[in-house]
Protein: Glutamine synthetase
Organism: Helicostylum pulchrum
Amino acid sequence: MAHQARINSVVESLTKAPRKVDFPQKNGHVQPISEIFGQNVFSRNEMSKMLPKPVYKTFVQTLKGNHTMDKVTADAIAHAVKVWAIERGATHFTHWFQPLNDCTAEKHDAFLTLKSSFVDGSEVVTAIDTFSGSQLLQSEPDASSFPSGGMRSTFEARGYTVWDTKSPMFIQEGPHGTSILYIPSVFISYNGEALDEKSVLLRSAEVLERLALEVLNIIEPKDAENRTELVYTTLGTEQEYFLIDRSLYTLRPDLKITGRTLLGGLPPRHQQLEDHYFGKIPTRVLSAISECELELAKLGVPIKTRHNEVAPAQFEVAPIFEEALLAVDHNLLTMDVLHRVAHRHKLKVLFHEKPFRGVNGSGKHCNWSLSTDKGDNLLDPSAAPETNYRFLIFLLATLKGVNDHGDLLRAGVASASNDHRLGAHEAPPGIISAFLGSQLTEVLDAIEENRPVNYGAAGLELQHVRVKGTVLDLKVANLPPISRDLTDRNRTSPFAFTGNKFEFRAVGSKQSPSFPVTLLNSAVAKALTEILADLKAEKGDKPVASVEDQLVVIRKYIKLTKDIRYEGDNYSDEWVQEAAKRGLANITKSPDAFLRLLRKGNTDMLKDMGVFSDVELNSRYHILVEKYAKDITIEAQTMITMVIQQVLPAAYQYRRDLAEAASFMKNIGVEASPEIDLLNELTPIVANLQKDITSLKYLMVELIQVQDIVQLADKCCNLVIPKMEIIREYADKLERNVADKLWPLPKYTELFLNI
């Protein structure tokens, strides 16, 4: 019986011992992670040791954009990495890329090749391991089966993966002691259009770097030795996820097919006691995370923190901040390693933004900033932000980008899964705004009004202001004073300044951070073009923009960005009304968000910045719309199957048991009203559920005939989802009322607590 399988899985989940993992030892103790870190990465240090000095120097110039990769350099690098990888057990290599499906992709090729020669007139075939520069630089996977949004026909199959030289190659352990060499790559079509997430991210990073350098050269020119030569975006991606027992997961078709529970009610206790957040990590989970961190350390992924999140069975890992291009690769590696390691521990990781209704969902908080090759963070306010004009200019450029293209940022995080999370009082709403905190708000107001900064108005005492914020006196003699940051953390804001960076909190947990970061980079770059033009106009024929010139521009952009700044509760009804007055878009559904990709102001900006072409933008729109429609369709069909094959049969069986019990009671002269009352309570629920599931079946048959993908997505949003919500309410009532011994699906109580 299905119920027995559920009970067996529950018992099994409670008796599983943690998997033992042998960490590397040194002198009888666990080896420090710092000594293991990056050992499976063909890093710059490794390259410098293995390559001839002229070749390595040429490669470094290539990274700076000052040299094109030539055949000699490519062949030398290919030979070196082949030797390095084979020494570590590599038998295959793969170009690892990010197609437009929120996944990574790879095709493995063997180093093995056959070499023919003739000896005394006879052919001699020798097996050798080879890897050439041309094999390193590009490969040719079939592009026809990846999402293209109409950019190419199915018969136009050729596509190219091209090595991203800025992201180091690495090996991952394969089966039987072997390994595979991974070559991070971009993926383009035969005609050069981006078919991936990384190409456009690289473009956005390049244009942002160029414009940021131009601004720096105008506001603080320096001699050649001290001049900033590189500006890059930094990123730290806090990854939230759920872990549940794998044996229970296998009994939930909805989790297996869609990543979320389409049915199921909350248990009496879930997150309302607020005791899971930062609580003790369960033993099996800690064992899995520890092994995951070991693998990630070998891959050079700098995981810094791990902890329980708010919802039961929810957790988070977060890395040290890195250059955004590398941070994205590392985030995708983190998700991949979590997935693989969880299997070894008989756990299942869930990255869906809302796998369980009624408890907090998962996000991927993207902490974004700008840094230079001199080690300066351009978004660091320093001790006196009111006189740090460089900081203010880049702060205002970021705010201007968000102000002008907030709807585009909303489109960048839109999906069928993230719709369940955004605006649910656990994550930011669909209105994009920025939070600065009281001190920075007062600084901007004071500059705009041409008056001294009043720290008292910001709740601060002037004598306590310092680089890290203010000093808090804990009023306990044996505890030291502690520093307080410049700003609080507004958990309701989608784009909050948190000390020396912005935290983009609306990004979904299962999506690649590439696309939202690409859009953010592009929007800020566009704002920098406007600021650059104004700085040039103010300085006139002077070689640099004076402090007075900069102040004029700063005041202008303070005024231009007031609408996007909000310091209050983003969950409140008052903010919805206030946002409407300010003209800020309140987008609650993904199909509406996707349309913002095609708004003229957004398309013009993305094309002007050289990040997307018209063809690429339209393809991206159609890919997102099509995926949304497919996601909802798959969920609806899964729900239909579960209700018909599992939920209704359990209800029918229970009604039959009640009817037989009532009949038996009457026959022996015992009052049967308890059974009859319960039977009468269940009957309308079952009837309504059967009626609505039939209605959904007919609706899905009708939708098969809809050819226009935009129309299909609209119908999925406005017809299918509401119908599924009604069906879920009836099914969850049955779960609460049908005898537990008959219920086939693992319940939330079991899914949450059996780890």
User: Anything to note?
Assistant: Residues 37-196 form a domain with the Ubiquitin-like (UB roll) fold (CATH 3.10.20.70). Residues 461-468 have pLDDT under 50 and may be disordered.
